[in-house]
Design goal:
alpha/beta; Leucine-rich repeat, LRR (right-handed beta-alpha superhelix); seven-stranded parallel β-sheet; 8 helices; 7 strands; 39% helix
């Protein structure tokens, strides 16, 4: 009886480990059709072994801490991927074919050399989380990426994890000063949603809306800020909203 209990406990573990591949990537992959998770972490890879593309049922791919400078077009052959983690590599570009990974929900590209993402990234309609911290992405590109993936939680800065309201507020201010008013309004919106109890968030969104010729929306936010006893909002009401 004890022997059967042990077997019942071990069977799920055996099945699970048979679906993973975390050994030397230079070795052939055993039963690639059964593999649904690959972890080649810190293997000094400069390119992805072609054997990877035999794993047609692969769902999770982790290639952290390697020396990959590019992701090949063939990544699109892995249509069952839901998670890709490529932190701490040397990626400077992503292939346009990544946009065909319709099941992808999680993409982490922390500490690479990315300055932009391809237009096709907009086709990742199921992408829930995108990590881009530690990449030299310019302000204009950050705004463009945000607009392409409106339903994705995107992290551009580590600061965003610890104090998201300050990050949204300060980033909206920076974009506003640089003339990216439309994108600044989106970050001001995020600040309002995160902390609707802070009058300054409404006031910042009001300024963005006013610059976008939306006086009605701007005055609505000014009134909300004034209701929170924001003195600057009172002045704006007298000057712009009467």
């Amino acid at each position: 009886m004890i022997r059967y209990i042990i077997l019942l406990v071990l069977i799920p573990f055996i099945m699970l480990t048979s679906c993973r591949q975390n050994t030397d990537p230079t070795n052939p992959i055993k039963s690639p059709v059964k593999v649904n998770k690959i972890e080649w972490i810190g293997k000094n890879l400069t390119s992805i072994p072609s054997s990877l593309y035999q794993c047609q049922n692969l769902k999770e791919l982790n290639l952290n801490f390697n020396n990959l400078e590019y992701l090949p077009d063939e990544i699109s052959r892995l249509q069952n991927l839901t998670s890709i983690t490529l932190n701490k590599n040397k990626l400077s570009v992503l292939p346009a074919t990544i946009g065909s990974l319709s099941k992808l929900q999680y993409l982490s590209l922390i500490y690479n050399n990315l300055q932009f993402l391809p237009d096709e990234i907009r086709f990742l309609s199921n992408l829930k989380i995108l990590h881009l911290e530690g990449n030299p992405i310019p302000e204009a590109e950050i705004a463009r990426i945000d607009s392409m993936l409106p339903n994705t939680k995107i992290y551009f800065s580590f600061y965003e994890h610890y104090d998201p309201v300050s990050y949204y507020f300060n980033h909206a201010n920076e974009l506003l000063q640089k003339g990216y008013v439309q994108y600044a309004e989106k970050y001001a919106e995020k600040a309002v949603n995160a902390r609707p109890d802070i009058s300054e968030t409404f006031l910042l969104r009001a300024i963005c809306k006013y610059n976008l010729k939306d006086k009605t929306g701007a005055c609505g936010d000014v009134r909300k800020a004034a209701q929170m006893n924001n003195k600057q909002a009172y002045n704006y009401m007298i000057t712009f909203c009467n």
